[in-house]
Amino acid sequence: MKINNKLPVYVVDDDQSVRESLSFMLEGYDFAVTSFSDGQAFIDNAPLNQAGCVVLDSRMPKLRGQQVHQQLTEVGSPLGIIFLTGHGDVPMAVEALKLGAVDFFQKPVDGDKLAAAIERACDISRQKALNLSAFTAYRSLTVREVEILNLVVQGKRNQQIADEVCVAIRTLEIHKANIMKKFSAKTVAELVMHYSAVKALEPLSV
């Protein structure tokens, strides 16, 4: 079974025995696990802007799992979310999935199924983080850089772009280098991929 062990996995549950057993089980699948005893501690201490997966208990004191999920959504976190509960019901599961959770399990959970769900959540989270990074890069572009980017992704050559925006070739090359750097793109193909991710995130006038 392929295991995505490069991204962090957070276990958030107020029951110490559950935290310890889940952490031990998931570490057996080579996940890098960090546990929290309540939702607020997780919100306050975990790097919410980075890719990863959080396994959330639904019913906790202080912040319920659904409230943690809401806060992650509000801050635009790319973390993949999986719910665990000992009191689950179909409406709760459906609502969690509608709001973007990757999966929903009732305790006790099968290790292989949970590991597979975490793997999916990490894959989704990684892509989401890349998309958000591309969007941030796009928002950092100058007006001229946006103009040039639009022409680059249309497949136009340097001379055509330089003529269209009325700049020297050398100036155009500097602009393109700045754009590539902001997107961390090594090739034009990578730049086009990031541009597509930006368009998928928000209907921009590009």
Secondary-structure map:
Blueprint: E1 8-12, H1 16-27, E2 32-36, H2 39-45, E3 53-57, H3 65-74, E4 80-85, H4 90-98, E5 103-106, H5 111-139, H6 143-153, H7 158-165, H8 169-183, H9 188-201
Parallel strand pairs: 1-2, 1-3, 3-4, 4-5
Characterization of the model:
This protein is α/β, with parallel strands linked by helices and 206 residues long. The chain folds into 2 domains: 8-129, Response regulator (Rossmann fold); 141-200, Orthogonal Bundle (Arc Repressor Mutant, subunit A), CATH 1.10.10. Helix content is 56%, strand content 12%. It is built from 9 helices and 5 strands; from the N terminus they run E-H-E-H-E-H-E-H-E-H-H-H-H-H. The chain has helices at residues 16-27, 39-45, 65-74, 90-98, 111-139, 143-153, 158-165, 169-183, 188-201; strands at 8-12, 32-36, 53-57, 80-85, 103-106. A 5-stranded parallel β-sheet has the order 2-1-3-4-5, sandwiched between helices. Strand 4 (80-85), helix 4 (90-98) and strand 5 form a beta-alpha-beta unit. Helix 5 packs across helix 9 (188-201), helix 6 (143-153) crosses helix 8 and helix 7 (158-165) crosses helix 8 (169-183). It is elongated, with a radius of gyration of 21 Å. The two termini are 41 Å apart.
Q: For the report, how would you describe the main beta sheet? A: 5 strands, parallel
**CATH level-four homologous superfamily name of the largest domain:** Response regulator
- N-to-C SSE series? EHEHEHEHEHHHHH
- The portion of residues assigned to helices is 55-70%
Structural class based on helices, strands and sheet pairing: alpha/beta
Overall spatial form = elongated
Counted up, domains total 2
Distance between the termini: 41 Å
Please mark out the parts with pLDDT under 50 across 5 or more consecutive residues, or reply none: 1-5
Question: What is the architecture of the largest domain at the second tier of CATH?
Answer: 3-Layer(aba) Sandwich
Strand order of the largest sheet: 2-1-3-4-5
- Alpha carbon gyration radius: 21 Å
| Average pLDDT reading | 88
Indicate the proportion of strand residues.
5-15%
| CATH-assigned fold name of the largest domain | Rossmann fold
Q: According to CATH, what is the class of the largest domain?
A: Alpha Beta
How many strand segments? 5
Number of discrete helical segments: 9
GO molecular function, one term: DNA binding
Domain Response regulatory: 8-122
Domain HTH luxR-type: 134-199
Keywords: DNA-binding, Phosphoprotein, Transcription, Transcription regulation
